[in-house]
Amino acid sequence: MVNQYLQILAGKTPGLSSKQTITTYQEEQNDWLDLDAEFYRWTKSLRPVQWYPGHIAKTEKELKEQLKLMDVVIDVRDARIPLATSHPEMDSWIGNKKRMLVLNREDMISTAERNAWATYFAKQGTKVVFSNGQLGMGALKLGRLAKSLAVGINAKRRAKGLLPRAVRAGIVGYPNVGKSSLINRLLKRRMCPAAPRPGVTRVLKWIRFGKDLELLDSPGILPMRISDQGAAMKLAICDDIGERSYDVADVAAILVQMLTKLPTVGSKALYNRYKIHVEDHCGKTFLEKLSMELFNGDVNQAAFRVLTDFRKGRFGWVGLEIPPK
Ligand SMILES: Nc1nc2c(ncn2[C@@H]2O[C@H](COP(=O)(O)OP(=O)(O)OP(=O)(O)O)[C@@H](O)[C@H]2O)c(=O)[nH]1
């Protein structure tokens, strides 16, 4: 990832109709910016982002045990940052079990980004379902796919003289990526608490879905140490890690710098929103000015405002990663 170039993708711009939505995938070399490399340079000197609360440690232990019982593992990721929300140890835990990849929050990226990720994962032979845990898009497809796997599993059981049984599907992923929302949508009722902050689900929970499927909702997990601090910073920007794990002013300053480099956002979008110019691409100075303008010099409040605006799509819907070449 470190030297990977981040291709800037067109995002959905608020106020534009779907016809006007800019979805052109910028292919020219000129449109490639070495943003990721810069991103890592910016984060190097900052306080590391780390979060490993007790409930995550406990979950990881239990989840590893439960994974042994699963027929299929549904790996849910944040569509804005599918790489940063991929657990480095998940592959070894899952082994050769059947696996489905869900990119949730599909509403928060552009169509071009969605297509790019679909192509990338298809090339790897990985089945991807795009979903929206809030509105339920993709949930039914997910349920159908998981159930279809039951056919094969039960055929094998019958061949061994065993009775068919419900398929066990485990829903796993980083905090706040939308696991509980997806399950609620799938079941069409609120079985799992879902909230706009990481770490809400605290215990593993089996839920029956019809007679063919059993779902396991699990609390979000994270590696004990996030060695890739660029990825950790993206988790913080996207609210996929507990707030106590990072310095909000650092994270917002990095976000400002990143936004200025994205052609579909750029300094102009920041100016339009706050009437403040970003000087020399410096996020810190920008936040200081914003704090003086709106928050009596409270930089943390200014930082929260910028992060919240990004998370609500006020600068358009853009992902912070692109598929590796
Ligand atoms: N815009 C958008 N918001 C979503 C989507 N899916 C879930 N959310 C919101 O994201 C927040 C987190 O969703 P949860 O379902 O609680 O996430 P979780 O992965 O179960 O979180 P943990 O309990 O921390 O593991 C909630 O406020 C949801 O409403 C989506 O596809 N699009």
Automatic annotation (TrEMBL):
A cellular component term, taken from the record's GO annotations: mitochondrial inner membrane
Binding-site list for GTP: N104, R105, E106, D107, N176, V177, G178, K179, S180, S181, G220
The keyword Transport belongs to this UniProt entry's keyword annotation: no
GO biological process: one example: mitochondrial translation
Keyword tags: GTP-binding, Mitochondrion, Nucleotide-binding
MF annotations from Gene Ontology: GTP binding; GTPase activity
InterPro entries noted in UniProt: GTP-bd, GTP-bd_ortho_bundle_sf, GTP-bd_ribosome_bgen, GTPase_MTG1, P-loop_NTPase
Membrane topology per record: Peripheral membrane protein
Compartments where located: Mitochondrion inner membrane
Family of the protein in this entry: Belongs to the TRAFAC class YlqF/YawG GTPase family. MTG1 subfamily.
NCBIfam families the record matches: GTPase_YlqF (TIGR03596)
Protein name from the UniProt record: Mitochondrial GTPase 1
